[in-house]
Amino acid sequence: MEAFKSIAKPLCYFLFLCILLLFADTASAKTHYHDFVIQATPVKRLCKTHNTITVNGQFPGPTLEVNNGDTLVVKVVNRARYNVTIHWHGVRQMRTAWADGPEFITQCPIRPGKSYTYQFTIQGQEGTLWWHAHSSWLRATIYGALIIHPKEGGNYPFPMPKKETPILLGEWWDANPIDVVREATRTGAAPNVSDAYTINGQPGDLYKCSSQDTTIVHTDSGETNLLRVINAGMNQELFFTVANHKFTVVGADASYVKPFTTSVLMLGPGQTTDVLIKADQPPSRYYMAARAYASAQGAPFDNTTTTAILEYKTSSCSSNCVKTNPVFPSLPAYNDTATATAFTTKFRSPRKVEVPKEIDENLFFTVGLGLNNCPRGARSRNCQGPNGTRFTASMNNVSFVLPSNFSLLQAHHNGIPGVFSTDFPAVPPVKFDYTGNVSRSLWQPIRGTKLYKLKYGARVQVVLQGTNISTAENHPIHLHGYDFYIIAEGFGNFNPKRDASKFNLVDPPLRNTASVPVNGWAVIRFVADNPGVWLMHCHLDVHITWGLAMAFLVENGVSQLESLEAPPVDLPVC
Question: How is the cofactor bound (predicted)?
Fold first, then answer.
């Protein structure tokens, strides 16, 4: 009996401590409430005022700041004339797929005059994410930063910066973006490219009618600034640099990375990169600049450069600097794949990580463009792609079609038949020389709403293989509801016998968007631990419009904590 008491006493004390720590952890977490009003707002850029769709009249939209463990409750009221949804890009949404936001995937759109409240908890993520519209091309102007600080009392795994600055890279059309995509859909041709890139909503000094509003980031000599760089552009990977300054990369997609130094970043749309920059140059003004990394040979692109200014505000600079022209940086050439590759392959996790070693689902997905023959009876004005065709895109030869009467998640949850099938192919239907001279018989994919079913807890590997159909291009592939490890990437056709030796199973980076190299491949791994329907797509919006997407249907596990939550009462109806 005495022996039992001697064991029981410390055991009770240990349990008490555990409960106390759990309570303290929960008590420090907060719930943040926000109202997003989607509305048309006059916005003037490039000398012209447009009736731009915004959140709360702001462009870019509001920055949301939370701590790891906090809950966000965002009521979205649609006062615009278009359907809308909001996606919380990179948020894991554990069991809360109803809050993920892609139109007709996890919800029906919020109709004009209606509202919907997104509620979700940040779990185990720290760093920079962002939010954006996920309906047609509205995200051209509806986007903003989502900053996740460590839990209360926690610290960064790097020296504390003096200040933090979100840097949102965007694209601006001197037109209504919805009209741009509708015109392209009507003609079958590629949409018009943007007229400007922007930094925090401003094009900068190199564009007409813009220099008076150029974004300025102030700094004191010697101080370190954490720049949270987000590529919120629609259709373009971007190089980003600051004249005469180096970056120390410390995070990407809300995961910390092993720090490394670089003078230039390359971000695909959807990706974020956290960098430390030290004001260690002579006090002056220095341009921050971004321009295209355009890997598709011969394809038109916006070949302009957006700028902001890093301005030292020390006493020696206060009067002189405003008068001096900012120092201009050297930027890589638009087709500098070597620089883009050198950057993306530097990423590592800070320490050894638990990468799935045994694989339950070994998948191989081709990603690329295609051309549909002009439909019988169609007019030539509706077939303005190359040689009288219409542009399309696909994964494993399936061009993804969104449903219209139900969202995929509703159809799955309620057992509604006929909305989708679960026969998305695990491998390409036809093997071919993916990055070589592809036979024209393989250029026209089938259309379908096909999902791939995963059991809860399945360990998944996906080879993402770019193709040379129509034109090869770097594709930023984003997976909703998950982070994944990028264990390897390379050029040419993936060869498992040759390329498995390149797999990094020790410290690969954890990302939510992978840049699949032009005419190359990337291999990702994840565990299917989040039930729901999760879209995987190219984050070049022109490509998702053409069908470069698929979705995983992850089944519920055994317990309630492994199952999708019930849908919210205000979930929009189609």
Answer: Binds 4 Cu cations per monomer.
Where b means 16+ CB within 10 Å and e means fewer, 477-510 reads bbbbbbbbbbbbbbebbbeeeebeeeebeebbbb
Report which DSSP code applies to 254.
T
Phi, psi of 537 (to 5 degrees): -155, 160
Residues recorded for the chain: 574
Asked whether the beta carbons of 174 and 198 are under 8 A apart, the reply is no
Instruction: Yes or no: say if 145 and 189 are a contact pair by the CB < 8 Å rule.
Output: no
DSSP per-residue string spanning 269-318: TT-EEEEEEE--S-SSEEEEEEEEE--STT------EEEEEEEE-SHHHH
> Does residue 60 have a cis bond before it (omega within 30 degrees)?
yes
CB 467 within 8 A of CB 435: yes
Pairing of strands 31-45, 71-78: parallel
> Which run of H or of E encompasses 28?
helix 2-28
3-state SS assignment for residue 34: strand
For 276, residues 6+ apart whose C-beta sits below 8 A from its C-beta are 158, 159, 161, 224, 225, 226, 227, 247, 248, 250
Report how far residue 188's alpha carbon sits from residue 390's, in angstroms, rounded to the nearest whole number: 4
Residue-wise pLDDT for 136-194, tens only, equals: 999 999 999 999 999 999 999 999 999 999 999 999 999 999 999 999 999 999 999 99
pLDDT tens per residue, range 27-37: 689 999 999 99
Neighbours of 338 (CB within 10 A): 10
> Could you tell me the two tokens for 332?
């890589």
Structural element, H or E, at residue 466: strand 459-466
Strand pairing of 532-538 and 510-511?
Answer: unpaired
Is 336:252 a contact under the CB 8 Å cutoff?
no
Q: Say what the pTM is.
A: 0.94
Q: Any alpha helices (H) in 294-407, and if so which ranges?
A: 315-318, 337-344
Nearest to 424 by CA among 440, 447, 442: 447
Tell me the C-alpha distance between 255 and 253, whole Å. Answer: 6
